[in-house]
Write a structure and sequence with these properties.
The two termini are 42 Å apart. With 279 residues, the chain is α+β, with helices and mostly antiparallel strands. A hairpin with a 6-residue loop joins β6 and β7. The longest helix is centred in the N-terminal third of the chain and has 31 residues. It is built from eight helices and nine strands. It folds into two domains: 165 residues, no CATH class; 104 residues, no CATH class. The strands form three sheets. Strands 5, 6, 7, 8 and 9 form a five-stranded antiparallel beta sheet that branches.
């Protein structure tokens, strides 16, 4: 029963953010004349739809964490269905709120299906910095709507991907909560190795491990510098802990993930490392 209630709770969160996102898109379009949802790069890259899908699915992310509902096939199917319905809702809200200059509501004399056909096939897009008008896209508008749906779906599924990679307590089937974190920056890979390679060679409840965790390493962010983020996670129920380490390397302009060096280490039951991580 609790699992069903949690599923409904997550669904409600996703539905709320989907409706609010659709409303925001339509309101922005009415106030500014700019349809963010259809914004694309070179017509076929649906940037606006992708970001809209991400925003609409954000409720699933926070709902899943709050209700501790792990990402699974049921959530994935739910997100796909809601994505389609949200895109349809954006079209319908645009239809129901469209008023002509003479004060007549379009919905009073044109059915939704006809409005949608006209809207998709008579749309104009601009290409390049010169903002060259494509003219009416005609039947290609349906393909563009399909591209926008894919973009919306990809944006939503990226949220699912974030959920799927969150650390979980396998015993309690609950998402782990971040308890504390440490960050160290090393001038290069050679200076990072003594810390990274040696850390888990020591018992996690021993003084050598504590000394490494508490050590301060700071280097200016420049090319070749290595950043090691060490996060202590804990289960809200059984209090078991897990350490997650992520490694990034600066390429001269930004940090790049070194995914192969990322690791998660489960801490033995009964061991509490919170005092070691906190200053």
């Amino acid at each position: 029963m609790k699992d069903i209630a949690n599923s409904f709770g997550v669904a409600a969160c996703g539905l709320v953010t989907s409706v609010l996102t659709a409303l925001a898109v339509v309101v922005m379009s009415r106030m500014t004349g700019f349809d963010f949802f259809t914004f694309s790069i070179w017509v076929v890259v649906p940037v606006g739809a992708l970001l809209t899908g991400f925003a609409a699915a954000s409720g699933y992310y926070f709902g899943s964490l709050y209700f501790h509902k792990r990402a699974g096939l049921s959530l994935l199917a739910q997100m796909i269905v809601i994505a389609g319905l949200t895109q349809l809702l954006i079209y319908y809200m645009g239809y129901s709120t469209l008023v002509l200059n003479d004060g007549r509501r379009v919905s009073d004399f044109i059915p939704f299906g006809q409005y949608l056909d006209i809207s998709l096939t008579s749309a104009h897009y601009s290409i390049g910095r010169a903002m060259t008008d494509t003219g009416e896209v005609g039947s290609f508008g349906y393909w563009l709507a399909a591209f926008q749906f894919v973009g919306f779906l990809v944006g939503g599924l990226s949220v699912y991907g974030f959920l799927a990679t969150k650390p979980v307590c396998e015993k309690c089937n609950l998402y782990l909560r971040p308890l504390s974190k440490r960050e160290k920056t090393f001038s290069d890979g050679d200076s990072a190795s003594p810390y990274y390679d040696a850390l888990f060679e020591h018992p996690v409840d021993g003084p050598e491990f504590a000394a490494l965790i508490r050590s301060e390493e700071k280097a200016k962010a420049e090319k070749g510098v290595v950043l090691v983020k060490t996060v202590l996670h804990g289960c809200p129920k059984c209090k078991s802990q897990l350490i997650e380490e992520k490694v990034q390397v600066h390429n001269g302009s930004e940090w790049k993930d070194a995914d192969k060096l990322n690791r998660r280490v489960t801490i033995p039951d009964g061991v509490d490392l919170l005092s070691i991580f906190r200053p």
